[in-house]
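Q: What changes when iron/sulfur cluster is included in the input?
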Amino acid sequence: MKHPYSTLNEMLKATYGQKIRKICVDGGFSCPNRDGTCGVGGCIFCGERGSGEHIDPSQSIREQVASVLQKAKPDSQWIVYFQNFTNTYAPVDVLRVRYDAALIDERIRILDIGTRPDCVDDTVCELLQSYQESYEVWVELGLQTANDETARRIHRGYDLVCFREAVKRLQAHGLPVIVHIIIGLPGETIEDIRHTISVLNELHIDGIKIHSLFVMKDTELARQYEQGLFTPISMQTYIDRTMEAVLRLSPEIVIHRLTGNCLREHLLAPDWIIERDLILYTIDRRMIENGWHQGLWYEADCSM
Ligand code: SF4
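A: The predicted holo structure follows.
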């Protein structure tokens, strides 16, 4: 079944002639939203490992990459994704050493860096730009929402102005930007999601990852959930809101993800998060049955 939206796999196949897989790397970074620089404790949903819980933290960066590539086919191609915490949160000399430690094999095509908008100044952009001679370079920013009130509620630690400036700075350096958003944040309505998508359309970002909010054990969100202060949305609401986000999203923006992902042993709620295939199948089927596709409502808005 062809997806009624543009997917990362399709884009990579068109560019590289094959599916490209990802090696997720823990680069040993921290986050200014956890170490006291702009906050302590981090975003309320963030786990102890700052994402990438499946990565073996005892391995060096080089070992993390090598352990995957030694089992990989000679003609395979790879993305190295620095995932955990804030992967531009260090002096540029340190960043260069850590990125270089991962770029150890000619099968690596793409260097993908996950970070925060308040950690991408000009020196960071220039460093990332320097890798474009040999690699495609992507930068992933965790926005979650364009609503500053929700951002305060989840302790994100920067505002929408900061995000807009970071996107423009990265784009001015020719760096593609992929943005993470979350559906199901406390207090958010469908209007907030419409606003978030319209901001991303206006900024002409390159890619999007849409996640469902889930409650991981040992987080601030888990404490709020256990005290009855937070209730997750239902799977049906997630599907409805995600579908509307896709319909309103510019067709130029590539969809990298449409669901969240959490290891079962770390998940507190909701249970439906693990039904990834069912969620994706339902979104695809409903869109196809209705003759809908990514950008349908964006195009309608633009033509008014
Ligand atoms: S910015 Fe990312 S790593 Fe830092 S606290 Fe928030 S979710 Fe965690």
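Observations recorded in class: The mean pLDDT is 95.
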